[in-house]
Amino acid sequence: MSRKQMHLATILSNGLGLPYAWLEPQVDPADYANIHALVRYAKAAERGKLDFIFLGDFLAQSQRSEAHAPGQTLEPTVVATAIALATDRIGIVNTVSTTFEKPYNIARVLKTLDVVSGGRMGWNAITTSAPHAAANFGRAIDDRETRYAQADEVIQIVQALWGSWQEDAWIADKNARRFTDLSKIAPVNLRGTYASSRGPLEIPPSKQGQPVMAHAGASPHSHALAGRYADILISEVFTIDEARHQRESLRRAATAAGRNPDDIKFFAGVIPTIAATPAEALARRGRLVEPDIIQQVHYLGRLIGLPLGPDDLDTPLSAAQLSAARANPGDPRSFRALEVAREGWTVREVLHHAVIDFHPAPIGPPEVVADHMQEWFEAGAADGFWVTPDIYADGMDAFVDGVVPLLQQRGQFRTEYEGETLRDNLGIDHQYGLRQPHSKP
Amino acid sequence: MSRKQMHLATILSNGLGLPYAWLEPQVDPADYANIHALVRYAKAAERGKLDFIFLGDFLAQSQRSEAHAPGQTLEPTVVATAIALATDRIGIVNTVSTTFEKPYNIARVLKTLDVVSGGRMGWNAITTSAPHAAANFGRAIDDRETRYAQADEVIQIVQALWGSWQEDAWIADKNARRFTDLSKIAPVNLRGTYASSRGPLEIPPSKQGQPVMAHAGASPHSHALAGRYADILISEVFTIDEARHQRESLRRAATAAGRNPDDIKFFAGVIPTIAATPAEALARRGRLVEPDIIQQVHYLGRLIGLPLGPDDLDTPLSAAQLSAARANPGDPRSFRALEVAREGWTVREVLHHAVIDFHPAPIGPPEVVADHMQEWFEAGAADGFWVTPDIYADGMDAFVDGVVPLLQQRGQFRTEYEGETLRDNLGIDHQYGLRQPHSKP
Ligand SMILES: Cc1cc2nc3c(=O)[nH]c(=O)nc-3n(C[C@H](O)[C@H](O)[C@H](O)COP(=O)(O)O)c2cc1C
Ligand SMILES: Cc1cc2nc3c(=O)[nH]c(=O)nc-3n(C[C@H](O)[C@H](O)[C@H](O)COP(=O)(O)O)c2cc1C
Question: For FMN, which residues are the binding ones (chains A, B) (predicted)?
Answer without folding.
Answer: 57, 95, 148, 219
